[in-house]
Amino acid sequence: MATTRRHYVTFDDRPVRNAVGLKLLMLSAAEHAPDDVLHVVLPELPEALVDWARRQAPSALLHRLQPRGEGWSAKPEVLLYLMDQGIGELIWLDADLMMIRNPQLLWETLSEEVLVAAEDLARHYDAALGEEKARVWGYKKKRDLETGLNSAVLRVTYRHRPLIESWGKHLQHELYLQAQRNFQGFVDRPRALYGDQEVLDALLITQFVEIPVRFLKYGPEIIHDHRHFYAYTARDRIRNALRLARPYFVHCTGFHPWLEGPGFHHEESGEYFHESVQLKPYVWYARRYADRLEEDNLDFWLHYRTPFGRLCQVLTLNNPHLQGLGLWALDRYRRWRKRRQ
Ligand SMILES: [Mn+2]
Q1: Which of 58, 64, 217, 278 is most buried as measured by Cβ atoms within 10 A of its Cβ?
Q2: Spelled out in words, what is the top-level CATH class assigned to the domain 7-216?
Q3: How much distance in Å is there from the Cα of 252 to the middle of ligand 1?
Q4: Residue ranges of the domains in the chain?
Q5: What is the pTM of this model?
Q6: d(CA 93, ligand 1 centre) in Å
Q7: Residue 268, Cβ neighbours under 10 Å: how many?
Q8: Which SUPFAM superfamilies match (predicted)?
């Protein structure tokens, strides 16, 4: 039986700096969803990347587009650009994601009305923050979502066009742009206007309440591999190790070692970066593509190993979910001790 050819899409405004992230997404999509298309939309097309994609990632299709919105604010513009080419269903993937299993099953049974988004790290809907997200735009909240929304993965269809257009307009609004400009680090930006996903959330709970939202479950369906590695809980690590079916996506968020450069090894922030990088599930899945990346300078993260890390890997039979358990426990202990002092 022939299945529908899916259209995945990603965008990055730093195609040279984030070449590694883009390549990993392209390689993983070419492996797990070889019959689908991954549209890679970039403001410029570096020759080296185009040449690499032609050889290594046959399912990727590169496009040049300079959107008005920067970084994560470009999502609606990129989605509309592809919809204008007659594509009725699009699945957005952040450029720091990797596919680790073909997600085909996820989309097969969905009706056109359903919007899919990832569940956020917090795993619950903050109703009070929802009120605030609606209020900053002068809207009234009409519903709460089932859980926190993360826009790293989004499935939209032509039915959602009015929502996407409205989302794009809101992201160009002075109110949003001002909040983005004021941002100095992560704390001072207003939470209700933090990024594109807060605005999408605001629209879904006010002007577009008729759209059903299906969430990809954080844990069994998508792993947010956060800088605070304890965010991927022991329960989910063990469950994913025991499950026959692995999650569809791993999302490297908050800490991108290849973007940070080797300096993170010396950061004394109590996050055990030099130990945790080698135990991240994202890095585990990335290693299988090491030779095909055609990048130098992978030693400080992709090939980085310490004796502690090796021990964790050996004791857990090199399981991508369990290898971080030891560090998880150490971190819990450290926090418990700190609270008692
Ligand atoms: Mn991301």
Answers
A1: 278
A2: alpha beta
A3: 7
A4: 7-216, 222-340
A5: 0.94
A6: 8
A7: 6
A8: Nucleotide-diphospho-sugar transferases
What pLDDT score does 69 carry? 65
Asked if 77 contacts 54 with a C-beta cutoff of 8 angstroms, the reply is: no
What pLDDT score was predicted for residue 2? Answer: 56
pLDDT computed for residue 244 by the predictor:
83
310-327 confidence digits (pLDDT tens): 999 999 999 999 999 999
- pLDDT score for 72: 61
Q: What is the pLDDT of residue 265?
A: 85
Identify the pLDDT of residue 338.
86
How close is the Cα of 225 to the center of ligand 1, in Å? Answer: 10
Centre of ligand 1 to C-alpha 226, Å, is 10
Q: How far apart are the first and last CA of the chain?
A: 63
Residue 250: both structure tokens together: 């791993």
Q: At what angle do helices 196-204 and 127-135 cross, to 10 degrees?
A: 90
Contacting residues for 295 by C-beta, under 8 A, at least 6 apart = 19, 20, 23
Evaluate whether 251 touches 118 at the Cβ level (below 8 Å): yes
**Tokens at residue 38, please?**
């991954």
What is the three-class DSSP state of 153?
strand
Closest CA to 194 of 182, 208, 204, 206: 182
- Ligand 1 mean position, distance from CA 24 (Å): 13
pLDDT beneath 50, residues of the chain: none
- 291-300's contacts with Cβ under 8 Å and 24+ in sequence apart are 292/27, 292/56, 293/20, 293/23, 293/24, 293/27, 294/52, 294/56, 295/19, 295/20, 295/23, 298/258, 300/257, 300/261, 300/262, 300/265
Which pLDDT belongs to residue 87? Answer: 97
Contacts of 216 (CB under 8 A, 6+ apart): 106, 116, 117, 118, 119, 153, 222, 248, 249
